[in-house]
Amino acid sequence: MPEARGKVALVTGGSRRIGAAISRALAKAGYTVVLTYRTSSREGRSLAARIGGSAVPLDLSRPSTFDRFAARMGRESGRLDLLVHNAGVFPRTPIDAATPAAWDAVFAVNLRGPFLLTRALLPLLRESPGGAGVLFLGDACAGELWPGYLPYCLSKLAVERLAEGLRKTLSPGVRVGVVRPAFALPPDRFPEERWERLRAKKRRGRGIGTPEGVARAVLRFARARQYNS
Q: Contact, 81 vs 9, CB < 8 A?
């Protein structure tokens, strides 16, 4: 019998790429998966149907919708045992293009949104029998700050510090952790040859290099009982 039968997991951006791998792995482990999408509704609904979950639209740049989203989770799922913050944006931002609007767009989705969504979902998380978990996806670039991607890398560095703060704030009732992928997938429409050169140059054995590896790390976190002890 799957170990997590009866439990509910929410995976933001869970319809495609790394998020889809996480959604599939959690469903296989027995979770009922609620995955969110912003624009990929067809992919989201198709995957949800295959794994026996549900797909719900959510835009992390619009925090005014989070309370309604949390209320919907409560009505339709009745509980929340694991929240995986996978959704994010990864724009290349050369210094000349790093306008206030460009910075705000990255930080709104990658940092502010996950924090405020966690806050909105705290009542459900705190009611989870046995304790819930909140997991953030960081990035290996948080430790290297790649030129051309400074807003993104700094947002991921901030995410790791946010997780540290929430770990202290929410312990012991809610476990908080970070998984740090490293070149698991290129951004959409990124030239393949350029990606492989960048991957070979930048990756130094840090982080997790495949979507399936990230999904396995999510499962390890979900299974840990004393993460905050």
A: yes
